[in-house]
Amino acid sequence: MDDTIHRSYEGFAYVYDTFMDNVPYEEWAEYVTGILEEYGITDGLVLDLGCGTGSMTELLAEKGYDMIGVDLSADMLEIAMDKRSRKGLDILYLQQDMREFELYGTVRAIVCICDSINYLESEEDLLEVLRLANNYLDPGGIFVFDLNTPYKYREILGDSVIAENREECSFIWENTFYEEDGVNEYDLTIFRKEEDDLYRKYEETHFQKAFEPERVKELIREAGMEFVAEYDAFTREAPKSDSERLYFIAREQGK
């Protein structure tokens, strides 16, 4: 029987938190919360779009927001719900494609971080997400999202190989950046320790798109939203030529 399993995020979901343990989620949550507070959003319903295993969703819930988490991956959400149960948090998780997400009503803010937007395949997909965000935001509500920049894919990630070995799991991450299409392909090979102490091999291929910042602003406006700000990540400074991650803020504008 072939122990190699091909299914997006099936293998990676169960090692995701392990390999993301170097991400300063608390600092990221402080940054996002700071932006929300600047626009008068200190409580109420907030949607975490592309929530993954719920690490950011939980931190925002602990800061007093009524959180909804949306993600396409059932495996990611299974982990998120297990974590929610252990912490006793009141978070609603929904398995939905962000290009087609539906809510029961409007929310005060939407956040989408950790390059979830880069997983959209085209400008048309991004435009649809922005239109949905505008539809499901309260009047004047804001959408905060980040993006890996074309510079990062071209100069940092593209054609690189990243590997990490842990006792319970290891991975090899091979990147290929296709300049013409603005797409970064990365092939993941994951070895995960199972209950029988044997390691199972998983293989997955993921794609992320490098969106040009100026085009993102145009799409925000095309979706009927107001472009508010663009920051070099975790600052309030304008983007630089070598910025690796950008934050965008868009505001709901007349449905």
Automatic annotation (TrEMBL):
The keyword Ribonucleoprotein does not apply. Residues 46-141 form the Methyltransferase domain. GO terms for biological process: methylation. The keyword Transferase applies. GO terms for molecular function: methyltransferase activity. SUPFAM superfamilies: S-adenosyl-L-methionine-dependent methyltransferases (SSF53335). Pfam families: Methyltransf_25. Keywords: Methyltransferase, Transferase. This is Class I SAM-dependent methyltransferase. It comes from Fusicatenibacter faecihominis.
